[in-house]
Amino acid sequence: MGIEIERKFLVTSDAWMQQGEPVLLRQGYLSSHPSRVVRVRIDGTKAIMTIKGKNVGASRGEWEYPIPMEDAKEFLDKLCEQPIIEKYRRRIPYAGFVWEVDEFLGINAGLVVAEIELPSEDQAFDKPDWVGEEVTHDKRYLNSNLITHPYSSW
Amino acid sequence: MGIEIERKFLVTSDAWMQQGEPVLLRQGYLSSHPSRVVRVRIDGTKAIMTIKGKNVGASRGEWEYPIPMEDAKEFLDKLCEQPIIEKYRRRIPYAGFVWEVDEFLGINAGLVVAEIELPSEDQAFDKPDWVGEEVTHDKRYLNSNLITHPYSSW
């Protein structure tokens, strides 16, 4: 198991758009239960199944398994909760860390969030000036909740 | 993906007990939703994650991934729906097929079912004389339902 420590922010301008190559992510859930999330994701040419335990603060147990691309496609199209999440992700290095900026598509179009993964909960870090309000603890922004309560319905 | 064609029966005597070595299976569910079951199983020294799609007749799409034993133990103890299922399985060859006889423990103690996996839905097969009534389509006997509605509560 890994422990994932992630903080999530809104963005305040489009300046991120000029940075990083967009990669299309398609992801869906075999379970969106907060204590046992089972996520299927196609990230460019990689297909991954990820299990996530309960959030404790900004930390969460996380286990990843590569799976065949063909299986991932079948899960996303036929088994996962619908609709699935589609978003462009840009990976933007800044001050020693990588920011992942997710630009959502479909029923979540208009939503953009920036995430940073940290080695410990109290790790200090600098924010680019297009990074705004923190939403780490706002459950509406959980990808697993954006299926049942999409941004377009807020 | 494989297609799993399985038929399930009650047993009418203890004659199966003398046959086959019992192996302890421990299994739990990260999702017990009938359209997207995610099962974690420890079968002797093997640890497996299995995804199952919707039942269509006696057939069901099934995908299996080996996972590290340590991960499986953590899922069963901490993430899966509780309580988990524990049972002794005996594999008993008979007339060209293998019968799997599951003797449930814990809250499902007293329940014994015999299953046969078939290459096609119309495959003919012979039954040992300790195999009784078919319960393939009785959803109470789904392992994923035996957690919320255990045999001891019937």
UniProtKB/TrEMBL annotation, chains A, B:
Record: active site: 29 (proton acceptor)
SUPFAM superfamilies registered for this protein in UniProt: CYTH-like phosphatases
InterPro entries given in the database record: CYTH-like_dom_sf, CYTH_domain, NeuTTM/CthTTM-like
Positions of the CYTH domain: 2-148
PANTHER family in the cross-refs: SLR0698 PROTEIN
Protein name per UniProt: CYTH domain-containing protein
Record organism: Pseudoduganella ginsengisoli
